């Protein structure tokens, strides 16, 4: 198999430049490889702030200026495209609706699926570009029959294939990830940026959720959904306290419960269930979070869908570890059984299946089966 980051035929490439160091180096590498590269910064906020808050957030006016300066140094054309309305509808509103329904979404996956490799890619193809280039750490390999596979990055410590697990065949055919094939540390990427004269070499990484610049997810949701006082109860239904909105909690959460009454065994309690219908949050011991199986919906395959049941490894969080599973597609749903119980699995999260380093596909968790509490 060959790595598409090392394509021999020059391509017309649209490089998505966030204003950070990874996307700048990716664009520079694509240009150095001989591709005809154009940089584009996505304006995703209708009211961008002039400056980010510390290392949080992205897509600000400051970021667009950093991206433009990087494009100037690389020597490529540069544009700013306004996708704020599409981003609000497909990512932000989806994020709020999922929390309101008691689920825990991953907006980065939704952004890759709906914005970078849908809205952006569609526009790029319409303008005659061959591929969209990003600074993600992942690899696209081409098999002898011409089909493409998404694989983990060579540097597993920086691998971002989990958030790309929503990409299908068509999207992979037009994806370029120049950072995925090299085993380099972030310090080495920054050193490369500095050698190239890119001012973003020492710029802090953005983290958390890009459209919540201050990192206060609960405050962000409260502004949009309003306060709605409800009960916090134990597994027997005993009232332990109150909250100001069930949407502010996620399965497995320990901090911020504000329960005055200690547990009988003196051990910490965790969020076990969130009921948006009754606006109730149920808490209990850590071992009540152990999950043995789950059902996931809206599967997306990075290639041909599996023909029958199979054994894979699964990743449940962007920076989570792999765990062995058996999985089967049943009536359009993905039924997954874990070899060993896992903890803190929340509906709304994505499960991404792997065969070695190859990404098989992903799906959205709809329900789980627990060791002690049955289906949730």
Short description:
With 376 residues, the protein is an alpha+beta fold.
How would you sum up this structure, described in words?
With 376 residues, this protein is of the alpha+beta class. The protein folds into three domains: 2-202, HUPs (Rossmann fold); 227-284, Roll (SH3 type barrels); 288-375, Elongation Factor Tu (Ef-tu), domain 3 (Beta Barrel). 23% of the residues lie in helices and 30% in strands. It has helices at 21-32, 61-74, 84-100, 107-126, 169-172, 186-195, 217-225; strands at 2-3, 12-16, 36-43, 78-82, 131-133, 138-142, 148-152, 175-176, 230-233, 239-243, 270-275, 280-284, 290-301, 310-315, 323-330, 333-343, 350-355, 358-370, 374-375. A hairpin with a 2-residue loop joins strand 15 (323-330) and strand 16 (333-343). Helix 1 runs parallel beside helix 2 (61-74) and helix 1 packs across helix 6. The two termini are 42 Å apart.
